[in-house]
Automatic annotation (TrEMBL):
Domain Response regulatory: 8-124
Keyword Ribonucleoprotein: no
Domain of life: Bacteria
Keyword line: DNA-binding, Phosphoprotein, Transcription, Transcription regulation
GO biological process, one term: phosphorelay signal transduction system
TM region positions: none
InterPro entries with a match to the protein in the record: CheY-like_superfamily, NreC/VraR/RcsB-like_REC, Sig_transdc_resp-reg_C-effctor, Sig_transdc_resp-reg_receiver, Tscrpt_reg_LuxR_C, WalR-like
4-aspartylphosphate PTM sites in chain numbering: 59
SMART domains in the record: HTH_LUXR, REC
Protein name: Response regulator transcription factor
UniProt source species: Chryseobacterium antibioticum
Length: 227
């Protein structure tokens, strides 16, 4: 694979040894190349415009500029960067908050490196990653008592938009959705954009939450990657 075709990865973590080990592992996979490593959130925010990764692997707690600050900045930016939060402070109960703040995956540092590689690819292709235990937590967290964070109801979505939303929840790529619905990839992207505008969410993970909240899809039917 050509260097220009590889998925560009950034790492922000204040454990230098961990950063070096993770960088070496990522660079050993021909699908990826590390373009930026930082040991603080502040350093990443200074460097990200010079070396913009496709995917950022982000620690939550760092000495100079936390991962939460980075999430806040990126959620209000137009970089299109995907964020995998990888933390030793992982708690399943934090899942909803991480998604709300713009994370595209939330993982424990106890994850196997080989599984992390698959998660990176899933986030790149599908825009998000959920494990089965996280979906179980989301099922309990997304109750009708929670305040709605969207302006439109499911009745305001077109039939085609609902078709696209259901396939997004099955982790289909844009091309796969286009092939399934016999429409162009550009039309799929237009439907996705309209869905995000109507539901007032920031990413594909938000669309999945919306679909579960509005009973467009049962949480049990969300397609997960095999462990």
């Amino acid at each position: 694979m050509k260097e220009s075709e590889k998925i560009k990865i950034g790492i922000a973590d204040d454990d230098l040894l961990f950063v070096q080990l993770l960088r070496d592992y990522i660079d050993s996979d021909e699908r990826y190349r590390t373009v930026l490593t930082c040991t603080s959130g502040a350093a990443f925010l200074e460097e990200m415009n010079r070396h913009t990764p496709d995917i950022l692997i982000l620690d939550l707690r760092m000495a100079n500029g936390s991962g939460l600050e980075v999430l806040s900045v990126l959620s209000n930016s137009s970089t299109g960067m995907k964020i995998i939060v990888l933390s030793s402070f992982y708690r399943r109960s934090f899942m909803g908050q991480m998604l709300k703040m713009g994370a595209h995956a939330f993982l424990s540092k106890e994850i196997e490196m080989s599984e992390l590689s698959d998660v990176i690819n899933a986030v790149h292709v599908n825009g998000h990653y959920f494990s089965d235990d996280q979906v179980e937590v989301m099922r309990h967290q997304l109750s009708n008592k929670l305040p709605e964070f969207h302006a439109y109801s499911k009745d305001d979505l077109t039939e085609r938009e609902i078709d696209v939303l259901k396939l997004v929840c099955q982790q289909m790529s844009t091309k796969e959705i286009a092939d399934t619905l016999f429409i162009s990839p550009k039309t799929v992207e237009t439907h996705k954009t309209n869905l995000m505008i109507k539901t007032c969410v920031k990413n594909m993970a938000g669309l999945v939450i919306y679909a579960v909240q509005n009973r467009i899809i049962d949480a049990d039917r969300i397609v997960l990657l095999d462990k």
